[in-house]
Specification:
By secondary structure, the chain is α/β, with parallel strands linked by helices. It has helices at 2-15, 34-37, 66-74, 76-85, 91-96, 106-118, and strands at residues 22-25, 28-29, 41-45, 49-50, 89-90, 102-104. Helix 3 (66-74) packs across helix 4. The longest helix has 14 residues, at 2-15.
């Protein structure tokens, strides 16, 4: 119960930030990948991979907010499939599905995020 409470509170706190939030993802996001995709702008490397590894495959129902975020980002059916099947979403598919806004080489992800933040 404590873990789920903290997980839900984390997501609420992220949504309560009163300025735009930019995520710079430069590699695999397999544990709570819903957190960076909740940002207002999501920049990723071409090496980025999303997967909700610890939940369903570990015998835990994804009920700490992941189930809301991924069904919102991917759509209800694809989002549930992604979570319950342990599906991997690579960078190109994430861009095509609108999960990320831009793809860059790994070395260019953070500079691009900082460029956007400075503008």
């Amino acid at each position: 119960d404590h873990t789920f409470f903290d997980g839900r509170k984390l997501l609420g706190n992220l949504l309560a930030i009163e300025v735009p939030v930019i995520s710079a993802i430069n590699g695999p996001a397999r544990i709570h990948p819903e957190i960076p995709v909740m940002s207002d702008i999501v920049i990723a490397s071409d090496e980025t991979l999303f997967q909700d590894a610890p939940h369903f495959m570990g015998g835990i129902v994804p009920g700490d907010g992941a189930h809301i975020v991924w069904t919102h980002v991917l759509g209800p059916n694809k989002g549930r499939y992604f979570l319950l099947m342990g599906e991997e979403l690579d960078a190109k598919e994430a861009l095509a599905r609108g999960v990320v806004g831009e793809l860059h080489a790994k070395a260019d992800v953070l500079p691009r995020a900082l460029e956007i933040a400075a503008s």
